[in-house]
Protein 1
Amino acid sequence: MGARAVYGIVVREWLRFLRQRGRVLSSLARPFVWLIFAGAGFAAVFAGRDAIDYRVYMAPGLLGMVVMFGALLAALSTVTDRDAGVLRMVLVAPIRRSTIAIGKALAATLLGTVQTLAVAAVLLPLVGLRPTWDGALLALAGIVLSSLATGSLGVLLAAGMRSIENFAGVMNFVVFPMLFLSGALYPIGHLGPVLHVLTYLNPLAYGVDLLKHALLAPWTGAGYGGELRVALDVVALVGFAVVGLAGATPLLAREGGVTRAAFRERA
Amino acid sequence: MTAAAIAASGLGKDFGAVRALDRLDLEVREAEFFGFLGPNGAGKTTTVHLLATLLAPSRGGARVAGYDVARDGLAVRRRIGLVFQETTLDRDLTVEENLRFAARLWDLPRRVAEPRIDRLLSQFGLDGRRREPVRALSGGLRRALDIARGILHEPRVLFLDEPTAGLDPRARRSLWQLIRALRESTGLTVFLTTHYVEEAEPCDRVAILDGGRLAALGAPADLKGEAGVGSLEEVFLARTGHPFADGGAA
Ligand SMILES: Nc1ncnc2c1ncn2[C@@H]1O[C@H](COP(=O)(O)OP(=O)(O)OP(=O)(O)O)[C@@H](O)[C@H]1O
Ligand SMILES: [Mg+2]
């Protein structure tokens, strides 16, 4: 089913990623900036500071944040592909539209996972978190699955976007709400009922919850570990991935891979 | 087995209220060098995209390399090469990385792809540049690379959408030499769109499109004879409306 094409798409994204030094550096530095500034500020007002150091509590959320930025930004490259014409060239290859969506989502999964593992290797020792073997494996699964889910939804978002100009909108209306409603910075249970319901629509919330199961198990009793069932997290993340891929597939080929904007410039 | 390389019947496409292509009936024979001429906005690119299965027809249909564009898109795409009007290379990747990317999309195993890539790079004068990013190439070399990528999978029908637009005379000439050599060695069907009318003189047959409708079709010599003029360009000007004149077709 186009395994070589999927591989080609993943390799291309990987090569592009390696060449974008700025993107690599900022994605690796971002969680530490949050750890220093948000960590210092919230630690003082954090309700659970007798039970758990806020920086430890934040660690799974920061990893979730790296997943989201890593996978989502990788998936959004579909928009630049459309502008640069590369998408049309991919569309004229003898592969199905779903193969393209899968390739893009797997590339995003790879980039999200690699960046998050690199950050975890420094962040966890820094805050003094030493996961068990089981915990580490579960964390790895959580990182891969949340990268897949956010990557797939990112491909859907990108396939539906007209141009990269909507990018600021994506940051304000997608990335930040996803982050604040994910349990990355405070337990979801503390949110009001309306916002609490919204968290159930947030893929990152399940990813962060899974990471809390993996990394904060000792604090579950104090209310700072995972709040949902592990199985629910897994099913939800896979579900988001399926929805993203199924939605993106027909959108990718729209207008033969040309934006109306790009078309107007030419005419 | 004498199936036409391209057979369109009543093929048309609307974009909202814009009728980009009306109803095109056209047959291109195998190994033919076919020129598709027309002024800006005539519908040339739309036709190419319809034949390449990138757009769905609004009416009519077409068969390319023996397969229906609407029902057998994959089979059509497997047998065609398309060089788009604007370059579609990844500017951040190197020359050879672009070709490898295409080889994987077209499902060519490494042992088939690598020798072909080597051969195409030397044939297209890109050998010394293979590890350079595409953004460092001149327009002419980028175009050459676009074409090399378009034929990497050895298509039976090659669509060239204004391949020489924006190229200097020397780059243009070497592109034409490449394309001629390619046709002679492989018997490839070439469907060329251009508005540099003189480039279509060596075509076996040309069609002239105007406002989404076929305005003329035939061998260059026949069209010139019918119109009693000496160049294809004069045929073109006589058969197409031009925006700076009063009432369209002269
Ligand atoms: N995606 C689109 N959306 C809306 N209108 C379009 C689109 N693509 C083409 N058109 C319209 O269809 C008509 C034919 O366009 P097309 O690009 O096929 O012309 P062309 O012959 O290739 O022109 P050129 O020589 O400038 O490349 C034009 O009027 C154009 O405005
Ligand atoms: Mg065109």
Note: Chain A is about 75% helix and 0% strand.
Protein 2
Amino acid sequence: MERANATTRPDTPSPPRPTDAGQGEVRAAVASEAKARLVTEGISVHYGATLGVRDVSLTFRDKTVTALIGPSGCGKTTFLRSLNRMHDLSRGVKVTGRAVLDGTDIYASGVDPVTIRRRIGMVFQKPTPFPTMSIYDNVVAGLKLVGIRDRRLLDEVAERSLRQAALWDEVKDRLKAPAAGISGGQQQRLSIARALAVEADVLLMDEPTSSLDPQSTMRIEELIHQLKDDVTIIIVTHNMQQAARVSDYTAFFYEGNLIEVSDTNTMFTNPREQRTNDYITGRFG
Amino acid sequence: MAVTTSSTTPRRTRLAEVTPANLRRRYLRDRVMIGLLVLATLVVLIPLLVIVWYVVSNGIQAVLEPTFWTSDLGSPARALGGRDTGLGHTVLGTLVVDGLALLIAVPIGIGAGIMLSEYPDHPLNPALRILNDTLNGMPAILKGLLAFALIVKPMGTFSGLSGGVALAFVMLPIVARATEGVLRIIPWSIREAGLALGLPRWRVVLNTVLPAARVGVVTGVLIAFARAAGEAAPLLFTAFGNNFFSSAPLRYLTGPVDTLPARLYSLAISPYREWHAMGWGAGVVLLGFVIVTFVVSRLATRQRHQADM
Ligand SMILES: Nc1ncnc2c1ncn2[C@@H]1O[C@H](COP(=O)(O)OP(=O)(O)OP(=O)(O)O)[C@@H](O)[C@H]1O
Ligand SMILES: [Mg+2]
């Protein structure tokens, strides 16, 4: 289905780059003190002949949270995974464009995806504990498996990460228990703790709270607020209230295209695009 | 609450209405299915038990004789003359040859399985797959010939080493196939979770994927071991056979050694009743060998699992 794509773009002549165009106030408000941490330039992802996302250019700044929203199947996960080269391993997936982390294109030849992923952490849509490891070993896996053996340090990191992920109180007495033996929501928070333990500079979160109860969800949202001082956060969410609560910027995706991005306030009060408005007011998706 | 259902779309499809009669029928069908499964299990188990009973009842006497374990075989005259004779050297030789085969085949086989499953795009992968399939389809006696050509010829002597290598050839493709198979069913998400932590690929495989596949890999190794432990053909012109204890421990590797399957065969076709009895004894030991290995490794994997808890 070929659609006249250009009409959905706010800017026309130069390479489309929504963050740079028509967002004067936004940049003045936040960007002046925050440097660009991660910048994508025309990222497209294809699954064989199927389009994942097309030509997405976004800027993620230091000390900000960006929410990615849009109906199911619009390419949020696909885009997120392109930011830490997670598509590398899947056969038949083609990623084009650039994703520049602190001045280095992560897709440039010679760049080691492993180093990139140490700096750009990820929490997946579904909980993914390592089934044979204990809760403790799961949390510190990212440190232990690269050779960090200092027991005191590991203990410290484990407790801090579990506290941050609002899981400590529930598991502190059974850290050596197998991770497979805790509930789905607890496993999800464990996955979050594990991602926190490696202290990445950028944190990609794919619907991190979709399997959590309201209490844990609130604690994770608080965590996102706290983390913001050190970490650039990109979060996918289907919950508009959550996007409004936690994010500074919101990007709306639709059918593989980035339709609109602006600061979250503007997005939810006065979106430029009709489709964005329809989506956030619940008229579709 | 009155709900009006439109005539075109019924609110519920009543494909399988639950009535008492209907339920009884379902339970009955369930019982019949379970009955069939039990029957199938018996069909498999009974011949196995018959074989075990037959071997044990014929061989237990020989095995209970202490000299069976402490003496070597010597010439037929020994047994015929009622002097001490046994298969101590055969048991030792089998331990050496089978142990060596495990030592070679387990790491290489698991490695090959990892390669096949985890690195499908590696340029060596297709060659490895062809090699593995070829080895898998090759008759065991040819594997003996292969080891003969590779080791016996250059060394100029039959040896436990060449026997171990020949049996490793038997085990390798089975271990590799089994490992590949189990690794493939480990959810992809585990690998991604590991990679997302910034762990290198091999770390992820070794520390997260392989442990998750542990039980399946062990099963594969056991099947391969049971298969190899019973093979006589590959040992005929590698380990060759020997009627005596070797003079020095190292000779079990560098010189011709006795092995249970090959010895069992030669005893069985010998014309002496005393040797036939000992042959049954060899059968009992061989069975015990495989069973003990199964039980021990099952317990080992179970214990490690419980240690996690
Ligand atoms: N592995 C894959 N192979 C082929 N097509 C895929 C694959 N993963 C995703 N897609 C397709 O790419 C498009 C975008 O999918 P994606 O998972 O990014 O959506 P999403 O926005 O994350 O949706 P959701 O909100 O349901 O998680 C969809 O049309 C989907 O069918
Ligand atoms: Mg998704």
Note: The mean pLDDT of chain A is 88.
Protein 3
Amino acid sequence: MPYKTINAIALPTLLFGVLIAVWSTVAIKIPGFPTPMETWNELLIVLSNPLYDNGAGDQGIALQLMSSLKRVFGGFALAIAVGVPVGLLIGMSKAAQTAFNPYIQILKPVSPLAWLPLALFVFKDVDMTAIFVIFITSIWPIIINTALGVRSVSEDYLNVAKVLQLTPFEKVFQIILPVAVPFIFTGMRLSLGIAWLVIVAAEMLTGGLGIGFWIWDEYNNLNYSHIIIGIILIGVVGYILDTIMGFIADHFDYRKRGRV
Amino acid sequence: MSTKPFLNIDHVDKIFPLGKGKEYVALRDVKLEIRENEIVSIIGHSGCGKSTILNLIAGLDTITKGVILLEDREINAPGPERAVVFQNHSLLPWLSVYQNIEMAVKKVRSDLNPKEVRDHVIRYIDLVNLDHAKDKYPAEISGGMKQRVGIARALSIEPKVLLMDEPFGALDSLTRANLQDHLMRIQMQTGNTVIIITHDVDEAVLLSDRVIMMTNGPEATIGEILEVNLPHPRERLTLQHNEEYLQCRGAIVEFLYSKFAKHDE
Ligand SMILES: Nc1ncnc2c1ncn2[C@@H]1O[C@H](COP(=O)(O)OP(=O)(O)O)[C@@H](O)[C@H]1O
Ligand SMILES: [Mg+2]
């Protein structure tokens, strides 16, 4: 085995040992804190029956994750549907940029959770509220990156469009989008990452279903090992989401299709 | 060859506003008549306004005063009858060589059916001898090949005038000579009207029927016009010792480095 491969396995394993040691020490110092072994055993139990459904508030871990993912993808899809056209408009029109910019700058730094009570009041529905919060989370990076992509279209390409007398529609699809798509996907990848962060907090507040709710529920049940399991699973799912998005992004990036 | 001007640049001024009420007079009273099938080169020191003239003819920039007529029709917007070959080729990097040309053909020749489009594209790829590279992407081919694709794309839409802004400026001298030969051969075959901007004296004499020499800016205009009375096809090797060639060359060098020398470059 090459030296590099040995390192790639040995170093994380070593660090894993250290983490387990720290964790065990914490578990000894704080009464009731689950030990690594207890947590492992609980994990096996949780994963052994991930799809059970005893009605509202008592469902298997896979169902909880699925309902969180559904909300994330719902809000994310809405954000793409609105954000990409708005980003294209802002990128192509100076007037649109001037009109939108102050609002984007002011709304972007607002925590999406601040919208949650308002959404709850308007929709009176937990699912809709969570989807709306994810929508508000996801839309800013998508708008900003799409507009950035449009503005990075070089003057030369636009001159080609002018000489060929492309219609605005043809210009968008044949010149602007091919350049902007990699930027749009960068925005989408950022958005999805933040959306996955935000959904956990949102579900702790809305309750009912979802991985965020599950963690909070297990806190109320004094079932602390499940909180740790929740953290690990959220991390794993987030990592998988990011990898898939990166994969899709590369696929649509003309610069990465086997050429420089 | 008809005697009425094919392309008529009639007392054209170009003034760039610089903001705060300031302005830069780039061109003043430029008059030039170009015949059909002619190859004309425009030569001058950098910054004198060569690209500005070309952009006005292309319709990519607006004329401040005067008018440019192509076959008696006023030019006020870009259009495919005036194809442009840009200095940096400006091929679309996400399309292959074939697709870059096809995109132009599909747009401009909407009368062709798919098979005719294909034949048409292939014909122009063959014209620049790039059949072997037709499925490659711009990033995979050399600078000289990219420029040939740019020429093929421009010619494929069968323009009335081919406008070239220092098309070989970014290339090494061997590649440059090779492309000049390509261009001369293609012009013999297609009989295009070509306006080529250059700052290379030899290129100007070798390629053109007339060399337009520009004075320095601001308020640049046409200083002298030189007729190059050498028959086509031209052979760069035999021209080296040709009287007419050497005289033309001398006249341009005299203009650029004595009469309108620019000392700050
Ligand atoms: N958009 C513009 N705004 C202001 N000045 C310009 C603009 N474009 C060109 N100029 C000026 O006009 C002059 C001629 O430019 P150009 O035609 O590009 O010269 P060249 O002969 O090198 O092609 C230069 O001094 C340049 O600075
Ligand atoms: Mg120039």
Note: The pocket of magnesium ion (ligand 2) is lined by residues B 50-51 (CB under 6 Å).
Protein 4
Amino acid sequence: MKLVIITGFLGSGKTTLLLALLKDLSSDGGRNLVVLENEVGEVGIDGAYLETHGLKVKELYSGCVCCQLAGSLVTTLSELREALDPECVFLETSGLANIQNIMGTMEKYCEVVGPDEILTIALLDIERSELIFEHDIPVIQNQVKMADVLALNKTDTGEAGEAETAAAELERMNPDAFVVPMSAAEGENLAPILDRLREWI
Amino acid sequence: MDIEDFVPISFEGRVALRGPGGPQECLKAFLDNLLGALVDAGCTAVGHVKGMMTGGGGEPLFFSITTLENNLRFQGGPLGDSDTYTLTMNVIVAGLEERVLTKTFSTVLRGHFNV
Ligand SMILES: Nc1nc2c(ncn2[C@@H]2O[C@H](COP(=O)(O)OP(=O)(O)OP(=O)(O)O)[C@@H](O)[C@H]2O)c(=O)[nH]1
Ligand SMILES: [Mg+2]
């Protein structure tokens, strides 16, 4: 079973991107895709939002799948495989998740998703680029280092040239990643990510 | 700055409109004041202030703020007409102790809604 991990700092646009990607992929017909939501807050809001758009969502909340809920993540993936046998699960991590811990958990304990079956998309919010480039927050730095796709989101809010400069800096920080400046809310430049997903799933 | 600086609080409950205007106007006024009060209390960064309001038989209204300058965005809606609505919120910000965050949130909320 394949797993797409959509990660990124709080409010970087994970749910917005997830919805846009799933709407597009679902239009292929015959796809069996499942969404797994993880929120730090005690109440789930993203699940309700996605459900108003007709998506079925499994929720893990009141903790983070990188620490308190690591066990629940592994169990839930096994249960999803057993019950629905999806071709791919899309996991939205909490905005505070440490991707390194999640990868560690998957590698050690998860039997239903192999190490080559994980694609990580990390969102970076250009509207708050200081969080990426100035504050040196370890969780965000890890996301940049470990992601397969770096989605530089909210390019509609930036000034001319800002996205290009930020994208070049991200390429320098992780030369192996596929860097895509885009706007999830405006649906701008999602095609490179969708192509990559279709190829990969 | 590190991830431990970000403190989460949640709220879920029935609220009644106090001011003039519909639910979305009241929410906007509440969120404007909330952001101002958080900054006054020493908040140094917004992680995510987000939530949803439901009720009146309309569509759920979602809202989200991610910057100290208050870049409020609404999605969904419109809510139906009603005296009371259900408000669900997650607030995650940096620079405040949980006690201060909870008190600030509660004070501003009660200034705009009967809870
Ligand atoms: N201007 C702009 N806003 C965006 C874009 N993508 C998302 N947003 C807005 O950013 C806010 C946060 O988006 P979400 O998708 O909820 O972010 P998230 O990463 O899922 O948030 P958490 O799950 O709380 O960490 C919402 O108000 C979105 O409408 C974009 O491309 N441009
Ligand atoms: Mg989300």
Note: The mean pLDDT of chain B is 95.
